[in-house]
Amino acid sequence: MFLALDFVGVFIFAVTGALVAARVRQDFVTCAFFAGMTGMGGGTIRDLLIGAPVFWMGHGWFIAVCLLATLAVWVLRTDQWPGKPLRWLDAIGLSAYCAFGSLKALSFGVDPIPAVVMGVITATFGGVIRDVVAGQPSILMQREIYVTAAIAGATVTVLLSAAGNLNGWIAGTAGAAIALIIRAGAIARGWKLPIHPG
Amino acid sequence: MFLALDFVGVFIFAVTGALVAARVRQDFVTCAFFAGMTGMGGGTIRDLLIGAPVFWMGHGWFIAVCLLATLAVWVLRTDQWPGKPLRWLDAIGLSAYCAFGSLKALSFGVDPIPAVVMGVITATFGGVIRDVVAGQPSILMQREIYVTAAIAGATVTVLLSAAGNLNGWIAGTAGAAIALIIRAGAIARGWKLPIHPG
Amino acid sequence: MFLALDFVGVFIFAVTGALVAARVRQDFVTCAFFAGMTGMGGGTIRDLLIGAPVFWMGHGWFIAVCLLATLAVWVLRTDQWPGKPLRWLDAIGLSAYCAFGSLKALSFGVDPIPAVVMGVITATFGGVIRDVVAGQPSILMQREIYVTAAIAGATVTVLLSAAGNLNGWIAGTAGAAIALIIRAGAIARGWKLPIHPG
């Protein structure tokens, strides 16, 4: 079950990475490179930090998922679709990954507060790497509610799972739902946090 | 004792990270994100490289320190203080961390020369990550004596500790003092190294 | 034998790192810092990902090689040489490292498909880090055949070594040769992949 969630998260973030590269008219290999960095970057950093074996080393399926995502972007010309598919896809990936990342950290014996941070890192660092390597302003700097949604989702997941003793799957679903609602509000309604009153 | 040094280093670098984000008028969460990346980034990379468990995984106190640093920046409006508090704080963090990082590497059986490099990485990579993610020109590129101060401090620490057999605390204090003096000279007096005579 | 290849790869990438810093007229220490990041960055990330001890922790020789590379750039004024030495050196380093990286991953029990990716990461991430920290547009974004050459070289290496059961040295040489031929064609003849037909 968790494995399925992980594949979905990797696929969605990989699509956003390939889209960013396709939009600046890169070739297929560069698109795939960005798909891989974005799709697997956050989870890779999580695994290194919690001392887990890096999740995509044991077999080639995660890499195949990233290639599939690249192919989908390439064939479907998703970079020409109307609206903001990139941001909505990113929101779904963010939600799935903040829950999954904090659950995996808890399962490796990480303390609850760092486990929340691991959920946030899993959810956000793929996108941060994508933006930094592409030379784009990071989504962090755009004053949107983004990290906040991941914090809320990871916190709910850890609270329900560690304190509430709930089954990880239920805790994770609740956490992902919270994150998605908050991020959706930010995208659709322009929710913002107050900036520094400097 | 070392733990205290580590908390001080994390706090100071976290303040510089939060300051950078506050100056470009980001919200509290983004400030905290930058505080965490800057405060814990260098030490995290050090721990990964020397094969130590990442230092902030076992409990939530380091994360609490980063939040405290963010709160301090937010409440005290330190971004409006006169002068260059950011650079002086950064100098203190740099000095504490080049000594601490090389001592920790030595204690994990790293060879002396790589241990010097680990001190330098601990002291500088938090700031490098902060600048790269914020999209600012890295302090590395500004032709100031910055890395040099960390090299000098880490070298003195390793020499006194490994070759001189001195107690780590004494070696570290001496190394940190050297680093601080050199960096202070660079800030206050504009000390520079010769550039490439191209 | 492999150790020799590794030293050559580190040296060549270190030269490219020092050259980038020297060209924007940085001081010796910044040049050395870039030499180290570029020379050892890709291999460091590879070792972290496959769970190997980081290759330059046990002794100071790799760091010495990076300093030597910096000194060579500094003394020989290579930044003023005609032509594009940086790109050709980078091509040689890329070829040696995509072969070496995938062989090392295989020897640590990594599955063949991720082992190809490890070769690509070893070969390309030093340069990616160099460009990101220097604030330059990454070579990834320049629509040249670069990653593709590393993929081809790593794939050939892994196929010959894992499937073909060939000796690693023969497989690696064949892989490196393929990578070099493809990259040379891209530099000298302007070979390109088709961009996204957006």
Automatic annotation (TrEMBL), chains A, B, C:
Residues 4-77, 88-161 form the Glycine transporter domain. Its main location: membrane. The keyword Membrane applies. Keywords: Cell membrane, Membrane, Transmembrane, Transmembrane helix. It is found in: Cell membrane. One of its GO terms (cellular component) is plasma membrane. Belongs to the UPF0126 family. PANTHER family: INNER MEMBRANE PROTEIN, UPF0126 INNER MEMBRANE PROTEIN YADS-RELATED. Pfam families: Gly_transporter. It is a multi-pass membrane protein. InterPro entries: Gly_transporter (IPR005115). This is Trimeric intracellular cation channel family protein. The chain crosses the membrane at residues 54-76, 88-107, 113-133, 145-163, 169-188.
